[in-house]
Amino acid sequence: QKEVEQDPGPLSVPEGAIVSLNCTYSNSAFQYFMWYRQYSRKGPELLMYTYSSGNKEDGRFTAQVDKSSKYISLFIRDSQPSDSATYLCAMGSNTGNQFYFGTGTSLTVIP
Amino acid sequence: SAVISQKPSRDICQRGTSLTIQCQVDSQVTMMFWYRQQPGQSLTLIATANQGSEATYESGFVIDKFPISRPNLTFSTLTVSNMSPEDSSIYLCSARRGSDTEAFFGQGTRLTVV
User: Fold this and answer.
1) Which residues of chain A have pLDDT under 70?
2) CATH number 1.10.10.10 given to B22-105
3) Which of A23, A81, B50, B57 has the fewest CB atoms within 10 Å distance of its CB?
């Protein structure tokens, strides 16, 4: 079983839609959770970083962590064509420096 | 945040040659890492670059193939040695300020071995 599971998509939505991206994980020691956005031919760009269960909001983005279910989500409200990218979840623990990444979900927002 | 500059951004190399990738961070960081990203796959950690000592390699990666240097707290290099087409991939430099902080990435080096 992989440490982190993420649906690769692709996901295609109309502009203005609410997007939900999800990851599950198996290691209960994970305490830090991140979402990255990666445009084609670019490095991953940090969107959200959280270390607790619950919701964290930043503009149109909301990160949700449910440690009891080992499930994290990223919601994008009022999606824009510029949100078209691959979204990677990542997580880590206090017991090591390594972060574990999902395979990424490819999102296309259609104007 | 940290701004990470990585170069070259891309290269096409001949089989059997070596390529050194440079990574410069705009401020001092505690940890620097090198990842490989192959199409449709997750990021795979190659090694942790340790300042002033030998890098710590993950399973499946060895120093002879991927020598790493980290002479100070802002700079690191990764060399891909004796390249083969299987080494064609995107190589990413990453940095963290501390053990409980997020990771930032460079823009990546797209390597093609022919």
Assistant:
1) 1
2) no
3) A81
